[in-house]
Amino acid sequence: MAAIEGPAGLAGSPSRVSPLPAIEAHALRRSYRDHVAVSSVDFTVGRGTVLGLLGPNGAGKTTLIRMLSTLLEPDSGSFEIAGLPRTETRRIRQCIGVLPESPGYPRWQTCQEWLTYHARLYGASRRDARATALRLLGEVGLGERAESLIAGLSRGMRQRLGIARSLVNEPVVVFLDEPTLGLDPHGQQQVLDLVTRIAGERGATVVLSAHVLAEVEQACDHVIILNRGHIVADGTVAGVVRRAAAPRRGVVRVPPHLRTHAFDVLAAQGLVADRTGNGHRDEVELRLPGDEPPEESTSAALRCLLDAGVPVLGLSLEGGRLSDAFLAVTQGDGNG
Amino acid sequence: MADLDAVDAAPTTGTPATSAGSTWTVAEQELRDLWLSGRGVAMLLAYTVLLSITTYLIATNQELNFLEQREAVSLTLQLAVAVGGLLVVLVAADAVSGERERGTLESLLLTPAPRRSIIIGKGIAAISLWIGAFALAVPYIWWIGRDVGTFGVAFVGGLVVGTLLALALTGIGLLISTFSQSNGLSLALSFVVLLALYVPHQMPAEATRGWAGELVLKLDPFSAGLLYLERLIVNSHSLSQDLGLLVVPALCAVGLPAVALLVGGRLSLLPRSGS
User: Fewer CB within 10 A of the terminal residue: chain A, N end or C end?
Assistant: First the structure.
């Protein structure tokens, strides 16, 4: 079973510190007729963690989120959210927030009306609900649009409004299903900043389903990669990349007349991979062992070169990223 | 121990909403959605135009002695009940499947509001349309029947029969909406069911004679209700004289919403392209 612990200091606000994990799933399985969407899914997520949920289309991410958010019943298996067993659906809903994959918005309502309505459904009084709505709109950068009709918002604004909706009940766990889908880079960055703040300032656990792996690398502490309904990799981002043994390549650029000298220096330390430099007269390819973090190999190489008086004009690392690990553990399955 | 820790995780926004609180919150929102968005007003506007045209035609015929005045009142009231019922069933049929199609149901189901509260709240909004429709019909009934003294019984009879049928139709609409894969299917199916319920009442008199015809009229809540109004107003029967005709409408008014609530308790998001 994957056990994913939250980083120290982010384990929830003082009033909500609890030794229980935020999410615990055991042998979850769900099928649609003859298609198994999720199978044998086990994992544990600590408080205050930002967990990236990755997988190709049809991997089972949305089904998993829908099960954990009590919208779908698993065929078998069990889970607990903040210590609440899955049968306690109302109590679980009371302490989670969800941004669905394709949320619909009532176009004629104002942002503030919509959030107030949802806050009231969680038991807030009319006055508190309105105050919560206005506060959250401010937090997601929509304070000035409180009285605007939702129909007039851009897609990015609607996503931020959706995230605000998922926070109306001060949730312990927040599920965000593809929150950056269809957003421009600026909109994506705004949403990712929000995700980081949700975990950092509120101490909530965030489960972020995403397709853009760079986003996950940026925002998440841990990842789970699903493929065909199974967990194929899990752990910290660096750990998953390392365990996936994704091919990595480092290249240093040096003055062309010192390239041979640079190669000899690196070769003496066992740090060089390729003498040809792929035809580039100023490049030397580094050997990056899969069993150690790439920063250690590259630091050692740079130190050698500088000690030998070879100026380094540039350094690039290719491979060894989450996207490479993702492809390594999911490729060959014909998923899009 | 585990449960104590779980309670520690409770949100700080407020205490969990009670069923009654959730019901009222949903109903309030649905009423705003129906009336402030202009949808309900537009429906009632069309209803009023139809009622005006019909009343004008009926009044004109009356002046020409083609239609007895009591029959004119009965006809207008039956039209109000029938069209009011149509509006109610359409709003109820849109309640769940419409939200499902617009993608707003998921957010609603993710809240701790009990499923039945959601159904009741939506049902209240649908019923409100009948109340509006009946209120608009009152001046027409009064004007047409002002010389024959039928306004009192027409008002009470119309309110009772119309409310019973509106409740039954709300139940039917909500049931169909809960099960329908698409909103179009839900609306079409509800409309067809309403037409089917209206058919026995529109059958020629010869077809409804005899015990079999009478049975059909009594078992069909719509026909039974309209027949009750006809006898009340045209035949000057007392309010209690044909109460037997209201048994099926009353049973449907209680039973169908109850079934809709029972089914609605398991209201779920139909999986579409679950990935």
Answer: C
- The reply to whether B12 touches chain A by the CB within 8 Å rule is yes
- Give percent above pLDDT 70 in chain A: 85
Tell me if A93 and B111 make a contact (CB, 8 A cut-off): yes
Q: What is the pLDDT of residue B111?
A: 94
Give the whole-angstrom CA distance, residue A142 versus residue A153: 10
Q: Are B2 and A20 inside 8 Å of each other by CB?
A: yes
Distance from CA of B235 to the nearest CA of A (A): 49
Q: Which of A19, A63, A170 is facing B11, going by the closest CB pair?
A: A170
DSSP H or E segment with residue A287: none
In this structure, what are the phi and psi dihedrals at residue A252, rounded to the nearest 5 degrees?
Answer: -110, 145
**CA-based radius of gyration for chain A:** 23
Tokens of A132: 């919560």
CA A148 from centroid of its chain's CA atoms: 31
Class of domain A2-236: alpha beta
Better-scored residue on pLDDT, B12 or A277: A277
* Chain B residues within 8 A of A18 when measuring between CB atoms: 5, 8-9
Categorize the per-residue pLDDT at B266 as very low, low, confident or very high, splitting at 50, 70 and 90.
Answer: confident
- For the record, the structure tokens of A233 come out as 């990799």
Question: Which residues of chain A does B269 touch, with a Cβ-Cβ cutoff of 8 Å?
Answer: 66, 71-72
Please answer yes or no on whether B15 and A98 come within 8 Å at the CB atom.
Answer: no
Could you state, in order of their start, the residue ranges of all structural domains in chain B? 19-264
